[in-house]
């Protein structure tokens, strides 16, 4: 099989000659992790994709799916330890200078109806030529490489995007206090995305539509399945309908946290690939495989085990071997690799994994 054929097959539970190597979240380190690995490996210009021979992932269409024009980056306050600034999404963030951990989110661009109406008028007009300015070159390059093509991705989701606009607490309260606003945000954004996807599909075949949600914690989904069905799933149905009409093989969702309720709810509305199955939140990919034999699964290897002993790494790799006996598994860790993972452990894990996959 070609890389494109193999990647698509693994992401939609079709039979493949083997699993892809280097696809999904589970191979990519945080910036601090790379700093550690460059030091420990002695390779100053370390490129892990080249070093280990990762085969690559879906090629993400470079389309502007959010505010257009984006917000201007603006520093509000600087100290020895922190930088407070407005980012391109309009979120006021506080970033630590000493490490590259997630920022604190101090303020969000939408406080109510008036802000939303202004935001729509100023930043969510179609402006298709501007949003798709890089499409023609992407199409040329992707066709030449016979690359699998993905539309959508971080940070765009039916839940995830409203959370960025309002803030997590405000969104969760807003489902009760201003449901009409939440529904309008979801409707407006999905309208825009489908308009963009139609234009993309005129130029190149889309193999994969990805939805980023991150809508769970250790306790499970941040909203009830009743709310999921009422607010979100009508838009998943619209995305699934687009996928059917355009023969898009993969409709995937990314959410951290415990996803035991989300997986079956979203599968009913066309989702056929889910990731990354965070282990510390209570997910076990072997349980999901038994429960949902037609679901393609990505990730599920405990990233924290890679910071410990080889025996514990071997236990995670044994799980990979068992998962690969079935169609529809994309091996990888359950999120980006944290800086507590030593270089020698990452080398050991990758060398063993390549043999298991058969690269």
Helix content: 40-55%
Structural class: alpha/beta
Major beta sheet, specifics?
A: 7 strands, parallel
Cα separation of the termini: 13 Å
Q: Count the strands?
A: 13
Strand content: 5-15%
Total of helices: 14
Shape: globular
Give the uncertain stretches in residue-range form.
none
Query: Biggest sheet, strands in spatial order?
Result: 1-6-7-10-11-12-13
Helix and strand sequence: HHHEEEEEHHHEHHHEEEHEHEHEHEH
- The overall pLDDT average reads 96
| Integer-rounded radius of gyration | 21 Å
Please tell me about this protein's structure.
This protein is of the alpha/beta class and 359 residues long. 43% of the residues lie in helices and 13% in strands. The chain is built from 14 helices and 13 strands. Strands 1-6-7-10-11-12-13 form a 7-stranded parallel β-sheet, sandwiched between helices. A 4-stranded antiparallel β-sheet has the order 2-3-4-5, with no helix packed on it. A two-stranded antiparallel ribbon has the order 8-9. Helix 7 packs across helix 8, helix 9 (179-203) packs parallel to helix 10 (225-245) and helix 13 (310-323) packs parallel to helix 14. It is globular.
Features:
359 residues; alpha/beta; seven-stranded parallel beta sheet; four-stranded antiparallel beta sheet; globular
